[in-house]
Specification:
The complex is a heterodimer of chains A (about 350) and B (about 180). Chain A has about 350 residues and is an all-alpha fold. Chain A contains twelve helices and no strands. Chain A has one domain. The termini of chain A are close together. Chain B is an alpha+beta fold and about 180 residues long. Chain B folds into two domains: about 100 residues, no CATH class; about 80 residues, no CATH class. A five-stranded antiparallel sheet of chain B has the order 4-8-7-5-6, covered by helices on one side. A four-stranded antiparallel sheet of chain B has the order 1-10-11-12, with no helix packed on it. In chain B, strands 2-3-9 form a three-stranded antiparallel sheet, with no helix packed on it. In chain B, a hairpin with a 2-residue loop joins β11 and β12. Chain B starts with a helix and ends in a 5-residue tail after the last strand. Classes of the chains: A mainly alpha (about 350), B alpha+beta (about 180). At the A-B interface, α2, α3 and α4 of A face α1, β9 and β11 of B.
């Protein structure tokens, strides 16, 4: 690519960049407006609980619910997408507020997941009549919250015995993202969030396991019924639950390498060769998945994933440094050596990051 | 637009239907009071509420209301029972205490038990017996503005419940020393 061609392309695409940034700001403001509207209404009812008769509270809830959905639809039709998204978000949250309102008025204290399942059931039809991203995101939130609450209920058929390992925290959002991807309005930002969450959970779990070299029991019990479908769905359909910037290979490497230390370890970390191998794998694979994400981000032209990957790489190198040399570090020499090492790693990683981003741009 | 309004109407009908059912129960169902040992916490999500802790959630052998003979009859030779069953409430002064047990579908109904409610039981023969009872009366929401007539640690808290035959009890109103607590219903 010649410098002239590059300058010409940059000039012609400047408008597109601006439009993209402007769209993002409008969406964020729409979501913020919807969330503030929802929170404000809930607080007004709470602050005036005694002054508002039951019928007024319930009647106002019903009238506002119809207004939110009708307003979101009408504004969406007239091209006011950001405001429509804000109202759709308020309407989706208002359903949950209505369930809480009825529960509060009549002192109903059923199992917590039951309220969330009712929310999900009432939201689902909305996805087919109101094509708004906020509805899909709310359904995702309801599904993930319902499954996680259910896994913690004593009388649930998917009750988890212990939830210390990363299994449940990875599998449930992945399952939720796969299922929600079949709704009429698909939200790719949700897949990016799920990828960020999964990458974060695995990285933190492996850093903690590698550093502490101990782990509480991760016996999932009946929650395997939840974890196995979630992981299988994600491995089979990574394009439906993980960021578009990750190719299928990178997505599978992140999931498999991220869980392998726990597969080797089993339910608990015991002294012995098998679990020493698990800790060693956590050391190595934390770096492997960081590199996989950097590589996938560079190939897809995603600066964000390249940067996130390098941050994870830096965290991994520093954690290992303190693991190996922490006991020998004392006084001023320790601070000096650590400072020099930190600056050197920062320099080296930043050079590598700049090279990756430069290659990505060409 | 019609389909959007139809979905909104469905949501409204379901929730107002729930509200209507509970309104009907509160207005028509027989009521009685059970003793409590509440605590009064606050959290950001739930606001202010009583953790109800019905006094009869744990009963041990030697209870003046639930006799060893009644527990033996219920266990029918078994050492323990864990699961759903019905508990009978008998009048003791102005309130009601757990005094009888029966398995689901059992027609047994001893004289003094006036109300039978569904609950989860964990019953063991242990120095007589030990009974853990989940009546599903967990929390009672209290508006922030409500001034309680006494600290929750003081004796005398009671809960008025609505009775639905064969189903769980529903909380209706708080009482303190036999008087209803204004604002907490």
């Amino acid at each position: 690519m010649t410098p002239e061609l590059e300058a010409s392309l940059r000039q012609t695409s400047a408008g597109l960049q601006q439009q993209k940034a402007g769209g993002l700001v409008m969406k964020a403001l729409g979501a913020l407006g919807g969330a503030l509207l929802l929170a404000g209404l809930i607080l007004i009812i709470a602050e005036n609980w005694d002054a508002l008769p039951r019928a007024v509270k319930l009647g106002a809830w019903a009238a506002l619910q119809v207004a939110f959905l009708a307003g979101a639809y009408r504004l969406g039709q007239s091209g006011q997408m950001a405001v429509a998204e804000g109202l759709a978000l308020a309407g989706s949250g208002w359903v949950l507020a209505g369930i809480a309102l009825v529960s509060q008025i009549y002192q109903l204290s059923s199992r917590a997941p039951n309220g969330v399942w009712l929310w999900l059931a009432l939201l689902l039809p909305t996805a087919w009549v109101l094509p708004r991203r906020a509805v899909s995101v709310s359904i995702f939130a309801a599904l993930v919250a319902g499954l996680l609450l259910e896994a913690h209920e004593v009388d649930s058929w998917i009750k988890a015995a212990d939830t210390e390992g990363p299994w449940l925290w990875m599998a449930v959002p992945l399952l939720g993202a796969v299922l929600v991807s079949w709704l009429p309005t698909r939200v790719f930002a949700l897949q990016a969030w799920t990828g960020f969450w999964v990458f974060g959970v695995i990285t933190i779990a492996m850093l903690a396991l590698g550093a502490a070299q101990e782990a509480d029991s991760s016996d999932l019990g009946a929650a395997w019924w939840l974890v196995v479908p979630g992981l299988l769905a994600a491995l089979a359909l990574p394009d439906r639950c993980l960021p578009r910037s990750w190719d299928a290979t990178a997505a599978r490497v992140v999931m498999v390498a991220g869980l392998l230390p726990w597969v080797v370890m089993g339910k608990e970390l015991d002294p012995g060769m098998k679990d020493a191998v698990a800790v060693g794998l956590a050391w190595i694979f934390q770096l492997v998945i960081a590199v996989a994400v950097i590589r996938a981000g560079a190939r897809a032209g995603s600066d964000a994933w390249v940067n996130i990957g390098y941050v994870a790489l830096l965290a991994g190198v520093l954690t290992r440094y303190f693991d190996f040399f922490g006991n020998y570090l004392e006084g001023g020499t320790a601070l000096l050596l650590t400072g020099v090492l930190l600056l050197f790693i920062l320099y080296a990683l930043n050079r590598a990051r700049q090279r990756t981003l430069a290659r990505e741009q060409t | 637009m019609t389909r959007v309004v139809a979905v909104a109407a469905l949501q409204v009908v379901v929730l107002l239907g729930m509200a209507g059912y509970h309104e009907y129960v509160q207005r028509t169902a027989p009521t009685f009071r059970i003793p409590l040992a509440p605590s009064d916490p606050f959290d950001v999500l739930r606001g202010r509420y009583f953790v109800l802790n019905p006094t009869d959630r744990f009963i041990r052998g030697g209870s003046p209301h639930l006799s060893q003979a009644e527990v033996d009859r219920f266990l029918f030779g078994e050492e323990s029972f864990s699961g759903e069953a019905e508990v009978g409430f008998c009048p003791v002064d102005d309130i009601y205490r757990v005094c009888a047990l029966r398995r689901p579908g059992e027609s047994y109904s001893p004289g003094p038990a006036t109300f039978w409610s569904r609950a989860r039981l964990d019953l063991n023969r242990d120095t007589g017996f030990s009974l853990g009872l989940n009546l599903r009366l967990d929390r009672f929401f209290i508006p922030n503005q409500t001034e309680l007539p006494g600290p929750e640690t003081e004796a005398g808290w009671e809960l008025e419940v609505s009775f639905r035959p064969g189903r769980t009890l529903l909380p209706r109103r708080l009482y303190f020393k036999a008087a209803p607590v204004e604002g907490a219903r």
